[in-house]
Specification:
The chain is α/β, with parallel strands linked by helices and about 500 residues long. It has two domains: about 220 residues, YjeF N-terminal domain (Rossmann fold, 3-Layer(aba) Sandwich); about 280 residues, Ribokinase (UDP-N-acetylmuramoyl-L-alanine:D-glutamate ligase, 3-Layer(aba) Sandwich), CATH 3.40.1190. The protein is about 40% helix and about 15% strand. It contains 19 helices and 19 strands. Helix 4 links the parallel strand 3 and strand 4. Helix 3 packs parallel to helix 4. The radius of gyration is 27 Å and the shape is elongated. The structure holds ligand LP7C6HRI and potassium ion (K). The site of ligand LP7C6HRI has 32 residues, from helix 1, helix 2 and helix 3. Homotetramer. It comes from Kroppenstedtia guangzhouensis. Its cofactor is K(+); Mg(2+). It catalyses: (6R)-NADPHX = (6S)-NADPHX; (6S)-NADHX + ADP = AMP + phosphate + NADH + H(+); (6R)-NADHX = (6S)-NADHX; (6S)-NADPHX + ADP = AMP + phosphate + NADPH + H(+).
Length: about 500
């Protein structure tokens, strides 16, 4: 399923009307009818409803909803927060039909009192055509609904008052229980703060022909199995550990061995054949006491228990055996870190996942990433993203989508911006957003698990475009499945233990 910007949605709309000859009125009828259906399914008995309609096409959908609810016996009043003269031809037509049917259409002044007395409010004030901070009287009508409505609130397409593309609240926005959106989800449904206003989300078909979408697909998709399920084929009975790839994880400095251990175990549970954990010399013993299955490789140490910036003497000989690298879990900071990391990135041409301190080491100068031979995946949380780009965490969080797309486009990398509704941006401009979040993953060690999963899937040879969304999906599913008692008490290692069930559920 796609995720659209306002412009992408307008383009689909336009092409359906202009190229396919399907009248805009049909799309509006379909939209309004589906939204009304969602209400009728939820409330089988007739209700008293106030429909707040603007003069744009979102308001037009509102008039269609009014007609269908009235036909189903509901007590309907439309409050027109706008002017008849400003209506588009489609909106004006459906407004006219409501008048002919005798459905009361009132101005905003005088109908405010109603909002506190109805069972249902339909918000058809503003949709994807909203521009800039809200003007009056729309703004106060929204505030009125939020303050006095005791009933159920349905938002048509998007909650009025949120910006479709950034998810910003333009002064005031409707707090909805349900949003029914048309043809595809919109970015604001998955970006904060707007995402907190939409309530439950339902995407309905309004008849935009698949050929129109195929000719000019939106850049972003929701993370769903269709993106990667063909890469989860059963393990061949003829395979051996060498068939399934070999991941090298570099990290695990003194006091941070847990991080590298978690990544290593997560990679093996994600199906990689072998994982080697490269840690500073002296840490091999303590690490061996923690993990059994991964191989352990001591790297030259400098300050006790930390990397030295030098390479092992057998590096060249062994490097070619790895099918992917993950660098960063428990890596820490050390003298000579930047040339060390840059040399690694230059010398290996297999996929590399960079996380945690590997990201911090690169902060401020990411130019090395442009020189890479193979794919690079960055997995920053908002704090790391802010450091990478030299901006504030607030700036990252207020434009998660844009910063991820920018970073990937500028440096030719795949960015996984973690957090609620993880954003994945590919170097070619494609984007995937994960539509769910697992609160259990908000815990130390969770990022190390994701790094291991991604490294493992890449080492298995799954292409980046599939491996990254698949990894994010498995991480979230395992996080959800790990909640056997309470999300509060789930550990990163519990998430690893549930990776098998997560894979099984998909297959
Ligand atoms: N997706 C589709 O194919 C279809 C979508 N439909 C619906 O149409 C709206 C988009 O309609 P549009 O006419 O472009 O814009 P809006 O109704 O969202 O808004 C225009 C309306 O709002 C006024 N306005 C704009 N900004 C502000 C502001 N800051 N403050 C106050 N008022 C503002 C402006 O003056 C106009 O009057 C989409 O969301 C769907 O609901 C079609 O029905 C079917 C096809
Ligand atoms: K709306």
């Amino acid at each position: 399923m796609y995720l659209c910007t306002a412009q992408e949605m307008r383009d689909l709309d336009r092409r359906t009307i202009d190229r396919m000859g399907l009248p805009g009125m049909v799309l509006m009828e379909n939209a309004g009818r589906e939204a009304a259906r969602a209400l009728l399914e939820r409330f089988p008995e007739a209700k008293k409803v106030a429909i707040l309609a603007g003069s744009g096409n979102n308001g037009g959908d509102g008039f269609v909803i009014a007609r269908h609810l009235a036909a189903a016996g509901w007590d309907v009043t439309v409050c027109l927060v706008g002017q008849v003269e400003k209506m588009s031809p489609e909106t004006r037509t459906f407004y006219g039909v409501c008048r002919q049917m005798g459905i009361p259409v009132e101005g905003w002044n005088g109908s405010e009192e109603m909002i506190g007395k109805v069972d249902v409010v339909v918000d058809a004030l503003l949709g994807t055509g909203v521009r800039g901070e809200l003007r009056e009287p729309v703004r106060s009508s929204i505030r009125r609904v939020n303050r006095t409505c005791r009933g159920f609130v349905l938002a048509v397409d998007i909650p009025s008052g949120v910006d479709t593309d950034t998810g910003a609240v333009l002064g005031e926005a409707i707090r909805a229980d349900l949003t029914v959106t048309f043809a595809a989800a919109k970015w604001c449904h998955y970006l904060r703060p707007a995402a907190e206003y939409r309530g439950e989300l339902k995407v309905v078909d309004i008849g935009i022909p698949p050929a129109v979408v195929a000719q000019n697909p939106p850049r972003a998709r929701l993370n769903q199995p269709s993106l990667w399920e063909n890469h989860l084929s059963p393990r061949s009975p003829w395979s051996h550990k060498g068939t399934h790839g070999h991941l090298l994880v570099l990290g695990g400095s003194r006091g941070m061995l847990g991080a590298v251990a978690l990544s290593g175990m997560a990679s093996l549970r994600s199906g990689v054949g072998m994982t080697t954990l490269g840690v500073p010399r002296g840490q091999e013993g303590p690490l061996a006491a923690k993990v059994t299955e991964p191989l352990i490789w001591g790297w030259p140490d400098g300050r006790e228990g930390f990397f030295s910036g030098k390479f092992p003497t057998d590096w060249q000989e062994r490097a070619s055996r790895f099918s992917a690298l993950a660098i960063g879990p428990g890596l820490g900071r050390f003298t000579g870190e930047k040339p060390w990391l840059e040399q690694l990135l230059r010398e290996v041409s297999v996929p590399v996942v960079l996380d945690a301190d590997a990201l911090n080491i690169l902060s401020g100068d990411l130019s090395i990433l442009e020189q890479r031979q193979g794919p690079t995946v960055l997995t920053p949380h908002p704090g790391e993203m802010a450091r990478l780009l030299g901006i504030s965490v607030d700036e990252v969080e207020s434009s998660r989508h844009r910063v991820a797309v920018d970073l990937s486009g500028r440096f030719g990398v795949t960015t996984v911006l973690k957090g609620t509704f993880t954003v994945i941006a590919f170097p070619d401009g494609g984007q995937v957003i994960h539509p769910e979040s697992s609160p259990a993953l908000a815990k130390a060690g969770s990022g190390d698990v994701l790094t291991g999963i991604l490294g493992g899937l890449l080492a298995r040879g799954i292409p980046v475009k599939s491996a990254v969304p698949l990894g994010v999906y498995l991480h979230n599913s395992a996080g959800r499945l790990a909640v056997t008692d309470s999300a509060h008490s789930v550990l990163a290692s519990d998430v690893i233990r549930h990776l098998g069930s997560a894979i099984h559920q998909i297959r």
